[in-house]
Amino acid sequence: DTGVSQDPRHKITKRGQNVTFRCDPISEHNRLYWYRQTLGQGPEFLTYFQNEAQLEKSRLLSDRFSAERPKGSFSTLEIQRTEQGDSAMYLCASSLTPLNSPLHFGNGTRLTVT
Amino acid sequence: GENVEQHPSTLSVQEGDSAVIKCTYSDSASNYFPWYKQELGKRPQLIIDIRSNVGEKKDQRIAVTLNKTAKHFSLHITETQPEDSAVYFCAAVPGGSYIPTFGRGTSLIVHP
Question: Which among A48, A101, A114, B83 has most CB atoms closer than 10 A?
């Protein structure tokens, strides 16, 4: 079990630029989640995949955000035309099926939009 | 959707004291309740979880209780140690959704 890995760890970008983050889940986990966390808050749900199917998207996820998991393994989260309000820690997590299983989080990608 | 409230936001105790963190949830369909510990600059990690078919679960110095009628659940840490200092998050997961909703977190500070 090598754990959930995320890349990059830190990203600084200028407002209006596009950014893409990658998440590699634990290999046998077929559920993959993206959460966003800001200082002093709990993780906030963004989107969720089971295998390659994106099953749920938060209403908070504007059309500038898109996520993919093309082969049911790694996932990417893209933010287009970044805004300062997008600055946050983006956490990826994976879990097993069936039933509810605990999430295993990655170390996150910290995005700073200047 | 599910809404989880967590209290207190900050909890300061002396080493050896007990600490209790409380959460309430809104969706009666929630049936899985994990707790995560997040140390500064690190990832959240599961410390204990409980399913709705039991009322209490213990693991050494940590216990969680669940009251389904009142829709609240609590984390109890006994004999606190400085290394217990961290932010603790509760979460609730509705059956069939598989999507945890997290509380806002409790910053626990254990003074030596």
Answer: A48
Rounded to the nearest angstrom, the minimum Cα separation between A50 and chain B is 10
Percent of the residues in chain B that have a pLDDT greater than 90, as a whole number:
89
Q: Which two tokens stand for residue B14?
A: 């002396």
pLDDT in tens, B26-71: 999 999 999 999 999 899 999 999 998 889 999 999 999 999 999 9
- Interface residue of B7, B43, B54 to substitute, partner A, most A CBs within 10 Å: B43
**Residue from the list A44, A100, A104 with its beta carbon closest to the beta carbon of B32:** A100
The whole-number pLDDT of residue B95 equals 86
For residue A106, the chain B residue with the least C-alpha distance is B43
Give the Cα separation of A4 and A31 in Å (integer): 12
Instruction: Tell me whether B34 touches chain A (CB under 8 Å).
Output: yes
